[in-house]
Design goal:
The protein is an alpha+beta fold. It has one domain: Gcn5-related N-acetyltransferase (GNAT) (Aminopeptidase), CATH 3.40.630. The protein has five helices and five strands, in the order βααβββαβαα. The protein has helices at 16-29, 40-48, 101-116, 130-138, 154-161, and strands at residues 6-10, 55-61, 65-77, 82-92, 120-123. Strands 1-2-3-4-5 form a five-stranded mixed β-sheet, sandwiched between helices. β3 (65-77) and β4 form a beta hairpin. The longest helix has 16 residues, at 101-116. It is globular and about 55 Å long.
């Protein structure tokens, strides 16, 4: 059996439903489906609206089927005094893993970082996702053991703001 051919490209408005579908698949994989509250309209506005705050690239196989995505945004390093790229999510459908799609998405993002003159490229990985950790280490990423993510949402956020 031959491996499917794929290409990585910038997402378009027409890709929004497929990206949301992949977000739902990612949430299922991470056993966090009950945390997904987003919808196509909000995702489209955030990607392509008047004031976009995120970008996305997709992996597409023929015929025009989106099987992976990476969603990212600009970050900033005060130590470098330079912008960076923060990868919020990268996901490839399980049946298309192992053929280079994940690496192609990461490589494309690294090319964006370099072409824009950014100072760094960062993302988080769940501590139980040993496959992803091994992949990221293999491509040269440093897993920072001393850093933890802090997050405030929902009622706690409202209380903090109040």
């Amino acid at each position: 059996m031959t491996q499917p051919q794929f290409k990585v490209r910038s997402a378009t408005v027409q890709d929004v439903p497929a990206i949301l579908s992949l977000i739902l698949a990612l949430a299922d994989y991470e056993q966090l489906s009950d945390h997904v509250t987003g919808d196509c309209q909000t995702l489209q506005a955030d990607l392509f609206g008047e004031n976009p705050c995120i970008e996305a690239i997709v992996a597409e196989i023929e015929p025009n089927q989106i099987v992976g995505f990476a969603l990212f945004f600009t970050s900033y390093s005060t130590f470098l005094t330079r912008r960076g790229l923060y990868l919020e999510d990268l996901f490839v459908l399980s049946e298309y893993r192992g053929i280079g799609i994940g690496k192609a998405l990461i490589t494309n993002l690294a090319q964006i970082v370099v072409s824009r003159g950014y100072g760094r490229f960062e993302w988080s990985v769940l501590d139980w996702n040993e496959t992803a950790i091994a992949f990221y280490t293999h491509i040269g990423a440093e897993i920072l053991p001393d850093w933890r993510i802090c997050r405030v949402t929902g009622t706690a956020l409202t209380q903090l703001a109040g």
